[in-house]
Amino acid sequence: MALKVALLGCGVVGSQVVRLMQEQADDLTARIGTPLELAGVAVRRLGRRRDIDVDPALFTTDAEALATRDDVDIVVEVIGGIEPARSLIMAAMNSGKSVVTANKALLAEDGATVHGAARANDADLYFEAAVAGAIPLIRPLRESLAGDRVRRVLGIVNGTTNYILDKMDSSGASFSDALEEAQALGYAEADPTADVEGFDAAAKAAILAGIAFHSRVTAADVHREGITEITATDVASAKAMGYVIKLLAICARSDDGRSFGVRVHPAMIPRTHPLAGVREAYNAVFVEAESAGRLMFYGAGAGGAPTASAVLGDLVAVARNRLAGARGPEESTYADLVVHPMGETVTRYHVSLDVADKPGVLARVADMFAKQDVSIQTVLQEGRGDDAQLVLVTHRATDAALSATLEGLRELDIVRDVVSVMRVEGEDAS
Amino acid sequence: MALKVALLGCGVVGSQVVRLMQEQADDLTARIGTPLELAGVAVRRLGRRRDIDVDPALFTTDAEALATRDDVDIVVEVIGGIEPARSLIMAAMNSGKSVVTANKALLAEDGATVHGAARANDADLYFEAAVAGAIPLIRPLRESLAGDRVRRVLGIVNGTTNYILDKMDSSGASFSDALEEAQALGYAEADPTADVEGFDAAAKAAILAGIAFHSRVTAADVHREGITEITATDVASAKAMGYVIKLLAICARSDDGRSFGVRVHPAMIPRTHPLAGVREAYNAVFVEAESAGRLMFYGAGAGGAPTASAVLGDLVAVARNRLAGARGPEESTYADLVVHPMGETVTRYHVSLDVADKPGVLARVADMFAKQDVSIQTVLQEGRGDDAQLVLVTHRATDAALSATLEGLRELDIVRDVVSVMRVEGEDAS
């Protein structure tokens, strides 16, 4: 007896899910122990030309009816966004279906509701495809590392911004030129906000942090900065110092282990760091655990086929569970750790200042750092006629201390401008 | 009610398993839903000083009695080797226990027997720790990629040999000096045969190939060459050409998809390839799947704590299954593909010859390649008085064609010596 699959959404990912279900039908049957059968495909509009070969009778615009149909066993949601995806997933689970979703926005915004419904209905909710496309990350984090303690997750989880930053780094292009090229190549959308402002990465960071630290995390808990302010000059001066700028998602336990921070922002990492070599639209994530040490996962973080591969992996797992009358691991939030405010984040900083070029300037600047207990590792001063550029790299300090330092610096008459401030990451992680 | 765990073996890995079970007891209880309790530890000799804090009454030399004890739920086997590990695992499964093992040798030598027993007893057999230590590889391959078609697995799966080759590359050391250093640092054993002759990597390759291609593979199916013949000159000349020599495990589907090859041998890879940057005793594995594309997994491939982390992850999964009355995915060999002989392997080759330095030599050498249909990509000739060194890199050709070419070359009077032959990998995989 076949297991019946309802597909909600038939865009880039959905059509690849259908293709794989067809092309690999025999393999899937062998791996699951019974065939999968496509019960229906919910779309917004009928009659649209699609790249897949499916009986037209399977298409419907009534997603809810399909998701709750008696003969459906598993619902695959690849619509994205909060609504109607959430209502559909809830309806499906309340009707006893297992659910596979690629919906990072929903899980990050309102994971509590959907995970709660999974628990209440004893239903499977799998979402490997929601983070980093084809890269197995959710399963390793929640299963392979289930006997370990994760300290930190640090990675490149947005392909669009990585493509743009990589282009800026390799060609010296400005942000807007690199964005335009990414759009022309289909790596960035017409409205690139979700990517370049870090919303997409923040949703993924929230999901990863929740799993890594067994706590509930939402997108609102994530400190988020995008890459729109990064200039060609920032990229070039990072390059000159042996660094590359990447948009990182960082989930890190505090030193006492009782809280953690989640943040997404551009940062400088040494060119020798493995993440520095992640080019174009690829993704890569470092996971540091107490016993496992440092692990890295690398691959295509987006795209129809890679994301569909992750969906299919979940589909096989959910189907096997269904046959066995079992279910996979449910949401784990027992640790209930606190997300600490950004001010408590400890990292290093690269600060570039325009200052007056006269005696005593360095002493006064250095004094401002010292007052806030921010220790300086390196200083580079370069005269340019009347004024000078001062580039400082600090030792580890809290975000709050650095902010207070910057405030103080801005009040000094000898500081003409705080040109740029960038966090420095990854020097202890390679 | 606690789930009772019998630990067979208490060496480097076993003692770390005990430590983690103790230190993370609360977390494990929360993640599983019930506590794990150490029911006993089977050791070869009692009264030995150990680094763990365990009630001495838990130690026993009667491993079989412990593994089959009525109150034991899960057996963790970290003894290694074929016997008595196999008998103990069989006895445990025949008594209805679930089993977690790190035993690559047994799985590669006689996987059929232990997997068969798991199936017959409806028991779980988990073995993430058997390949690449803490790196999640088994679970991603058999679960995350369950809906995809794996084309190739290519990686560094032996830390000892990677340490030695990395040392030879970075310091110019000879094989024996690098081996000595690895031994002094504990990366290599007193008898390094299993590592340096490629047996360890071959066992892992067999396990990976079996999972990747859903077929049964044993160590005997693996073409195996070690690194003992690699000279400092080989390493230096690879370096001069922009390559680094690594011991690779390669499992690759044939172009028609109906067979596959499994091999372990030293190979030259371009320095720009991500595997080239894998230093010291680290491991890294590339997996190429049709839809997922190229994935890489990187981390510590050995060591007590990393391996114990993998064991604990399996322990949590097996414990959850036990509570749910379910079991994980069983061995999948339905595809039953043929392992093709080494002669059918297609790759590129770097061949270094000592030849007489006179007119017509290159033509005669090139003709020998052409006769076997082996196409040459680059040639470098360097005169050295009476004779010359000829370095050729070929395009893709079968191993059989290359072997026939070499045989022909050795018969030419103008060829004084075939100095070295090395496969070139990874140029299409970065």
From TrEMBL, chains A, B:
InterPro entries: ACT-like_dom_sf, ACT_dom, Asp/hSer_DH_NAD-bd, HDH, HDH_cat, HDH_CS, NAD(P)-bd_dom_sf
Pathway(s) this gene product operates in, as recorded in its UniProt entry: Amino-acid biosynthesis; L-threonine biosynthesis; L-threonine from L-aspartate: step 3/5; Amino-acid biosynthesis; L-methionine biosynthesis via de novo pathway; L-homoserine from L-aspartate: step 3/3
Pfam family of the protein (one): ACT
GO molecular function, one term: homoserine dehydrogenase activity
CDD domains given in the database record: ACT_HSDH-Hom
EC number: 1.1.1.3
Reactions that this protein is recorded to catalyse: L-homoserine + NADP(+) = L-aspartate 4-semialdehyde + NADPH + H(+); L-homoserine + NAD(+) = L-aspartate 4-semialdehyde + NADH + H(+)
Job description of the protein: Catalyzes the conversion of L-aspartate-beta-semialdehyde (L-Asa) to L-homoserine (L-Hse), the third step in the biosynthesis of threonine and methionine from aspartate.
Family per record: Belongs to the homoserine dehydrogenase family.
ACT domain sequence ranges: 350-423
Keyword Ribonucleoprotein among UniProt keywords: no
Designated name of the protein: Homoserine dehydrogenase
Keywords carried by this UniProt record: Amino-acid biosynthesis, Methionine biosynthesis, NADP, Oxidoreductase, Sodium, Threonine biosynthesis
Keyword Cell inner membrane in annotation: no
Named cofactor requirement(s): a metal cation
